[in-house]
Specification:
two-stranded antiparallel sheet; 12 helices; globular; mainly alpha; two-stranded antiparallel ribbon
Length: about 350
């Protein structure tokens, strides 16, 4: 019979202080649970909201001649951006999955203008999300190769292999459909928890990782989505890292790639700053919130699974089911717009 001895530290003040010793010969599973927000955390969140609000107000009233009219016509974009960034940073799927259809169908922007605006928006939101995930949830060893390859792909996709306006919808539809199946695969397939060190991995794994990141950067340059899921899934299934680390690293790489896209398109021109001034504050706050939400959801699911097995981890976050549904809907709408009209 399994003898379980529970030792409670610090007088049992918090659930995270419970140490469980298994005497049955099975190895104990280390907990990666993030502690619940403390009062100091809420103070930092309030400070961040204040800083974002001051910067947003300064940019709006100093850079635009009629800020009040802009507020009346575009204020709704900010809460939409918050929601999109929250879900995007919880799953490493770029916010372009929502922003591109929003700008094309609701605001009737040219597809290329919508793509530029989505990349610029992601540069703010995914950077905030990467900071929210923190270094503990990011595979730092993977970043140099992923940054270099994805930025190179973004460069070629922006300057040397630019996509035409007529192909943005079709490309977005196909990439969305591919990511839908990839997310379903990620949900349904378990991954072993025995990590393969990136530092000691063979050269072929590193080569294919670099090639995959280059392709992901190229696709992101065309559709504003792709590189985050490429990185997350490669780390999850090839290097077998934990799902929260794979997602956090995907968010970090997507942030870097989006920043590169912002710089490239600022040089080329065509970013609609009157929209970006409303999407940026929403995604900055939503990105940090989404990273926190993603950590807690994955940790909660992991704790529920620990009593079943210590060898297999299934990233079956309900957020991913929701995202898979939205991405499939996006894909179908884009296909209908591309081929029927």
């Amino acid at each position: 019979m399994t003898n379980i001895e529970s030792v409670v530290e610090n007088g049992g003040a918090a659930a995270d202080s419970v140490v469980v010793k298994l005497q049955s010969g099975e190895p104990a599973v280390p907990s990666l649970s993030a502690p619940p927000p403390r009062r100091a955390d809420w103070k930092r969140i309030a400070l961040a909201i204040g800083i974002v609000g001051v910067c947003w107000g300064a940019a709006l009233f100093l850079a635009f001649p009629n800020p009040l009219e802009l507020i009346r016509s575009n204020w709704i974009i900010t809460p939409i951006a918050f929601v999109a960034a929250a879900f995007a940073n919880a799953t490493a799927i770029g916010g372009g999955f929502l922003f591109v259809p929003l700008f094309v169908f609701v605001y009737h922007l040219n597809p290329v203008a919508a793509l530029k605006l989505s990349l610029a928006t992601q540069a703010f939101g995914m950077t905030s999300g990467a900071l929210g995930w923190s270094r503990r949830f990011i595979v730092v060893e993977a970043l140099p190769a992923a940054f270099a390859a994805s930025a190179l792909g973004m460069y070629f996709g922006t300057y040397h292999l630019p996509i035409s306006a007529g192909l943005v919808k079709t490309s977005f539809a196909w990439v969305s459909l591919f990511i839908f199946f990839v997310v379903i695969l990620e949900i349904r397939c378990g991954t072993a928890c025995h990590e393969v060190s990136i530092r000691t991995a063979d050269r072929w794994r590193l080569f294919f990782f670099f090639a995959a990141c280059f392709a992901g950067g190229l696709v992101t340059a065309w559709t504003a989505i792709g590189i985050g899921e490429v990185v997350a899934l490669y780390l999850l299934f090839v290097y077998r890292v934990r799902v929260e680390s794979a997602i956090g690293t995907g968010v970090a790489v997507l942030a870097f790639d989006s920043l590169a896209g912002l710089l490239f398109h600022t040089h080329l021109g065509g970013i609609l700053w009157e929209y970006l001034v409303f999407t940026a504050p929403g995604v900055v706050l939503g990105g940090f919130f989404g990273a926190t939400m993603g950590r807690h959801i994955e940790d909660r699911g992991k704790r529920r699974r620990q009593h079943r097995t210590v060898e297999v981890e299934r990233p079956n976050s309900p957020l991913k089911w929701l995202f898979a549904s939205v991405i499939l809907l996006d894909s179908m709408v884009m296909f209908a717009q591309s081929y029927a009209f």
